[in-house]
Amino acid sequence: MIGARRGESSGASLWPAALFVWGPGSVSSSHSHHSIQLILALHGGLRARPRRGIPWRHCSGVFVPPGATHEVDARGVAVLIGFMDAESELALPLVHRFGSKLAAVPYAVVARWRHALGAPQPLDARRVEGWVRSELLNESRPRRIHPRVRRVLRYLRQGGIERGRATLPRLAAVAQLSPSRLMHVFTESLGIPLRPYLLWLRVQVAAGALVSGQTVTEAAHLAGFADAAHLTRTFRRTLGTTPRDLIRRAPTAHELRLASAPGRQSVHDETAWRPLQ
After folding, report:
1. Which of the four pLDDT bands, split at 50, 70 and 90, describes residue 9?
2. CATH number for the domain including 109?
3. How far apart are CA 266 and CA 17, in angstroms?
4. Of 117, 125, 127, 159, which alpha carbon lies 20 to 30 A from 187's?
5. Is pTM beyond 0.90 here?
6. Is 137 helix (H, G, I), strand (E, B) or coil?
7. Domain extent at residue 41
């Protein structure tokens, strides 16, 4: 299911699988992060490139896989930006479909997505949720996760990350594995090492707090960062933005929470996206 928003409580079976923010576009400096990202211009176009020294690619949407260095210039247009957990059903089919390189979204896909979102009308949560259901979740494919790793994820979902108890020895005890074995099966299950994944979760907890109206200092404390400056540095490195930029968009920022939907079919079109060279 999708639809948990600010002020709503989440059960243990739900996890913030994605954070979607929409509003004025801006310029991001060269960076990479462990989340999967979609950037869609709601009108007009933007430009993107893998790194400095590479010519800009003009397009209307960009797919950013985990760990891919990229720069995006979306000044002058309204954008929808989605950050998705690499382990989620929402994000996994995007990686399967579009690969491991920065990719431009073909205009035909952009046009379909804009239509689903109701552009050029102002976005609201209902339209964004409908778009996620019809265009992203429709292609999801469950990831096979080791049972001991599922124990760790359940522990984190129940508040382990907020309480600052997500140390390697503690998580190994939860999984009933040795620390080295846990790190191996975690990477094998989720496609990302344990430590960077935990950092992403802390960033996501802080982002959810900011969207809910908490201050940068409060969000930093909740997510286990030393202080607001530490949180800001981490945001720049992992998301290419700052906590205050997110607060500025807070009236139109929502957490979408995802639980598995049984029996969903997977549809793949391998020609739909083109890598940015």
Report:
1. very low
2. 2.60.120.10
3. 19
4. 159
5. no
6. helix
7. 15-142+258-262
